[in-house]
Amino acid sequence: MSSSSPFPSLPVCQITIPSNDLINAAYFYTKEHTSEATVNHCLRCAAFSLLFIREFPPLASAPIDLEAVVLSSLMHDMGWSTTKSLLSTDKRFEVDGANIARDFISRNAAESGKWDAHRIQLLWDAIALHTTPSIAQHKQPEVVAVALGILADFLGPNLPLPGNPITVERYKEIVGAFPRAGFSDELVDTLCGLCRDKPQTTFENFVSGFGKTYGLDGKGGGKEEWIKTCEDNEITKRLMGGLQACKQWDD
């Protein structure tokens, strides 16, 4: 790992986010294409992941690809990129982020031989599944660590997990090093914007809930219409409606 790290040491936590040429390049790429609030969120998530890797029993005893964890954490919200040309019009933001990260690694590291298909898939899975902990927790340790680190940024010391390593003191140090910078407001604006601009990508995940709560503009606008749209696209209705329509061909 490089000694010219762009990341500060965290003496209370006794961790430093690993740094090398690829990680640094990913960090600056993320800074170029996302907001300050998103970058700091990703850095906090990386730091929290490192605490889980060191101290959470299921991870502490496992061999961990730290580079994959840090890169996945840094790039996991590229699906919120402010550079709209990087984004699709028809994919969930998690998939956009995973694809952008995979393409970045393929451009910058695949030829080195250190990033084979397995490691790239590991990175893709960690990003694509980071909002689905019920699945991520059954994947590789790296995927688990990334999902836990991201969840910890929302729940901190209140994360209901036995052996949660995020103490109040550690939490305050990490947030102090990488301030929230309006992250809560930006989160609402971003996810409500997905409901408005890519509604078909939000019906099967938590994103639609932001539109139900905050409307399509983050201020309550269009909320009732959005709730009706979600009800019409509810998966149970779609599945049962499909079965009903197929009855004409059933034996």
From TrEMBL:
Residues 39-137 form the HD domain. It comes from the Eukaryota. Gene3D superfamilies: Hypothetical protein af1432. SUPFAM superfamilies: HD-domain/PDEase-like. It comes from Exophiala sideris. Pfam families: HD. This is HD domain-containing protein.
